[in-house]
Amino acid sequence: MFKYRRLKLWMVNIFLLLMCVVTLVPIVYAFSVSINGSNSLFSSEFSLFPKQLTIANYIAIIKDKPFLSWLKNSITLSFLTVILTMGITIPAAYSFSRYKFKGKTQLGNLLLLLNAFPTILSMFAIYRMMKIMHLINTMTGLVLIYCGTIAIFAFWSMKGYFDSISIDMEEAARIDGANDLKLIEKIILPLAMPNIIVTSVLVFITAWNEYIFATIFITGEANYTLALGLFSLQATDYSRNWPLFSAAAILTSIPVLFVFFYIQKHVVSGLASGGVKG
């Protein structure tokens, strides 16, 4: 029995290792293209290990293109979207989880129904609203759009976690004299921090990678996000520089990787502290 379990564990580990290798192949290939000295992506001479190694593509994307401006726009846009979305959805999700009020079920069903329809269907109405409010080609308009499209997902994610937190702890805290503000600050938010971090990261990545709304509501190269900037590098059919594009794609992925590496320990520690407090 022990040998069978050990063999099963080995098979699972080998399968996961193979999956990691398969997942890493496109990333390694893109990096290989980015350090290739020639734009020979589709030629028979191209290989995974280029003969002409260079970092000129990385230097060119930073010096010759407004990459740093695109990076600043994406960081600002993503962080503002996270702050606004979580600032709205956390109180709303807690209210839905803990309080009873008239129309609660109907409103929840409406949110589910709205989430079932593709956002692209409301594009014309959103554009008219943004135009009336003079928010076309502004960071504020894009943040509001992103918040509106992601908020429902963040709301249900947070509500599900609040539902899993025992009400007995809140009742005990109220008996000890804690008001609603202290209750949320000292008990609810620390317990919900793992899910808050994970949901915030998902909101961040969604805003970071979003392209459709950005291409419609943002004009001018200086106002581009990284998604728009990457597309602009391949916008023409006759001047495509794949090594330059790959270098930009690799640089675009680095901030997201840093976010993942940074939050990993916080998620683990948050789960551990939440278990102790529970």
From TrEMBL:
It comes from Amygdalobacter indicium. SUPFAM superfamilies: MetI-like. The chain crosses the membrane at residues 75-96, 108-129, 135-156, 187-205, 211-231, 243-263. The keyword Cell cycle does not apply. This is ABC transporter permease subunit. Its main location: membrane. Residues 71-263 form the ABC transmembrane type-1 domain. Keywords: Cell membrane, Membrane, Sugar transport, Transmembrane, Transmembrane helix, Transport. Belongs to the binding-protein-dependent transport system permease family. MalFG subfamily. Pfam families: BPD_transp_1 (PF00528). It is found in: Cell membrane. The keyword Aminoacyl-tRNA synthetase does not apply. It is a multi-pass membrane protein.
